[in-house]
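Input.
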Amino acid sequence: MQIRDATPDDAPTVKSELLVPGFRETTAADPEFSELDEDGVADASIDYWLDEDDRVLFVAECDGDLVGHISGGRHDSPPIYTRGPRTHVDGLYVKPDYRLEGVASALFDRIEEWARERGCEYMGVSAHVDNAAAVEMYDDAFERKYVSYRRQVGDE
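Output.
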């Protein structure tokens, strides 16, 4: 397995085989909140991560096939804190046939290296509460510091 930077040539495969299936899994976990706009899905691309120095998308390649991706960005801490910048992982997807084979861990190792190269002190990630596999993986690999909540804003 090779972990490498995604390239513009990877865009069609990343979109069709990694991004869109990941979007659909997210929707399945929380259909009301994560309902997809099919026009947005049709327009989805990896350009967002390729066009900026502070964002990245890595792919995992096995025997010439792209089997997973991780994406994220570097963010400065607010100036009221003494801590340095952090990297937030905003996307991770591994094809089902390659799960539990170390692909996600290898992707995390690579983005952590990228974060370190950019002077980041911390790396963070979020997972849907019902994504048991992700929660278990992150509980093993990260320190749980914050819990996120949401509610719909509506008319009173």
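The helical segments are 11-29, 38-43, 47-50, 103-117, 132-141.
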